[in-house]
Amino acid sequence: MLNPWLALETGADAAERTGQVRRAHEEFVTQGAIGAQVRNVVAESWQRCAGASVEPESVARIDLADDDLDAYRSAHPLDRVMPLFRELLGTVADDGAHLLSVCDENGRMLWVEGHSQVQRHAERMNFVPGARWSERYIGTNAPGTALAVDHAVQIFTAEHYCRPVQAWTCAAAPVHDPRTHRLIGAIDITGGDHLASPQSLALVQATARAAEAHLAELAAAGGASADGAPVLNALGCDEALLDAGGGTPVRLGRRHSEIMVLLAAHPEGLTGERLALELYGERTVTPVTLRAELSRLRGLLGSLLDSRPYRLRTAPRTDHDAVGEALAEGDLPAALAAYRGPLLPLSEAPGVVRLRRRLEDRLRRALLSSRDPSLLEEWVRTPWGEDDLEMWEALLAGRQGGEARTAALVRRVRELRRAYGLENPRMPPARHPYAEDRGAHATYRQRSRP
């Protein structure tokens, strides 16, 4: 197949292909083997689902409803492009055979629209607004997989990991914030196996690009932020993005990203000596090296960067601060949604490491104190939280669901205990040795995100 994101080759028999994939799916969930007839994007997704202990009979769970859902949707950036989605895909949704759906960056469905009869069929698998359709909750599906791989994709009948979804075919494309290039959600069309065509994939891709272009126009009209301050995003990425307004956001190099994060955290400014200590620690670095870095950064920032002491003349809005502000307000769901990953994950600058650990610790302690199973599970379903033993133990201690769910939690906790050298099979454990030294080691294994 020339395009690996398409479900069917031109002229392929849909019924025959469905049978092949269904047999391959059964072989995988029972024996763990993946046949050559399974597309790579689907095979890799199935492996992620198995690693996340997704049950093949799962049905999506509903996170938000009624007023909570309405408030969340109205505050989401994709609300601003829903008229565009309806204009471009409305006829597809109204033709009686398809559904138009839009989800956020976490796979939570925001809108599901179409013919009422088709919607009623979809409701049986909780394909409804407010339900969570990320891969880690409901397995391989077009919107969830598009978010996982950050690419438009079709998922055809039995390619879906969970059996209740295998009667459907869908095509989805991710949507990005044009200023920060971060994922903010996905646009999807769902229906019968006739959607496994090049046209449906091209349609959702074009719609996603049109939405991004419209968001860019709105951002240009509104400035860098609501109050005109620059916007700095550094969570979950090794190179920060700076939007100072009036143009395309600038991707900073790693050292410049560290400097910007440190200066944003110290609006009062830092002397050259203090900034060098925050950047390089006890390493011997000449003042000329730091001055050269700041000179190059000033070439990017212009009058935004001041000196004596080094400071930013206008304090930027940072995603790091957004998480902290949500925590201060006691809004854990908002804090978790704003946390896109560790702050500059690969940075070893002492000042950045301290900021990163402080934010991690605040968020993790708040989540553990809340004992909210949905929030705990959302954390362990992320790349940075999937190996967090303490969180998995908290989920196990407050477990919800049947025997299969409990068994999956027990398996995961035991896997991580072995990985950390904690072989005691007692459930639940006492405090673990690795958690004692938070100053030197992260509680969980950090991963860099692209």
Automatic annotation (TrEMBL):
Name the InterPro entries for this protein: GAF, GAF-like_dom_sf
- Residue span of region Disordered: 424-450
What is the organism lineage in this UniProt record?
A: Bacteria, Bacillati, Actinomycetota, Actinomycetes, Kitasatosporales
The protein's name is GAF domain-containing protein
Native species: Streptomyces bathyalis
Report which superkingdom the organism of origin falls in.
Bacteria
GAF domain: from which residue to which, for each copy?
Answer: 109-214
A Pfam family recorded for this sequence: GAF
